[in-house]
Amino acid sequence: MRTLEPYGDYFWQFYNSLSAKAKEKVDYVLQIVISVERISTKFFKHLDDGIYEIRIEVGSNIYRIFSFFDDNKLVILLHGFQKITQKTPSLIYS
Fold this sequence. Notes:
- By secondary structure, the protein is α+β, with helices and mostly antiparallel strands.
- The protein has helices at residues 10-16, 20-35, and strands at residues 3-6, 44-48, 51-58, 61-70, 74-83.
- A five-stranded mixed beta sheet has the order 1-5-4-3-2.
- The N and C termini lie far apart (33 Å).
C-alpha cells in the first residue's frame, strides 16, 4: 500500500477546481494508485526521468496529475491539468 503526499497546494488547487463527478473519479483512480501493486497504464504511466502521470478520464474530459515516488513507497502529487490535445506536454527542467 502506498501513501499519497501532495506537494504544496498545487494538487489541491487543481482538485478543488474540478466538478463533483470529476473529483469522484480522481478519488477512485487515486485509490487504485494507493492499493494496487502493478497499476495499469490506463491509470498510471511513466513519462520521463522519474516523473509519472496519473491518468483520469471523465466522459470526454481527460485529466493528468504529475507525480513521483519517494523511497519507492510515497507518491508525491504535484499538479494536475485537463488535457486538450492528444499529446502530454513535454517536461521542462530548469
